[in-house]
Amino acid sequence: MQNIKSVEFLINKNTKLIWVETPTNPMMNIIDIEKLSNLTKNNSILLAVDNTFATPFLQQPLNLGADIVMHSATKYLAGHSDLVLGALVTSNKDIADQLYFIQNASGAICGPMDSFLTLRGIKTLHVRMARHCENAKKIALFLESHQKIEKVFWPGFKNHPNHKIAKSQMNDFGAMISFTTKGNDYKDAMRIIENLKIFTLAESLGGVESLAGHPASMTHASIPKKERELSGVVDSLIRLSIGIEDVEDLIEDLSQAIG
User: Which pLDDT score, from 0 to 100, does residue 16 have?
Assistant: First the structure.
């Protein structure tokens, strides 16, 4: 997806929609939304962007040419890991009317309590995201300098292959970080996760608490190993969702877990 021409090559007469996620899970690749939007518009194709990791505070895909923006509101928008909810956003009335029709026909509406909790969470989105990003930067730098860590995936690093794109279309670099240990040892990754005391082992993300996950055995376990590893999801990859706790406590927890 980083090469727009490779996407163009895949378009055919049946292509109606291109759906992207940026930053991507769990490798933190960044998609150039504006360039992709130009491509989709030239081919009369809709562009949908999963903006869950970035949130509207960090990235506004509609302003970059996207037709539809999706959020797992369960994550940062609600912010407290206590509901399940999704959202589709568009500024196009025709698309909105079609979505309303589907919603009315299928009954895909959220409950009043989930709506209330999400709206309440959005009120603090800006202050939470600022703290998430502040903590993530310090933790990314800590992991990058650790002798037992092989590689850290975070778009805020200047050597990240998509750093310039991230800097141009995001207000900050987000609070999701993935890293691999030297030796790519599955047991080593398990040891680190099991030793964490503040970070909670969970597949979710975006809450006020810090979470750690092992994509190879959790979110991406159903993908064949060879296929997983081609995209970077190796056995030692650990994904972190950085919360808003005291960052020194989080660094100390990671330090004692890594050893």
Answer: 98
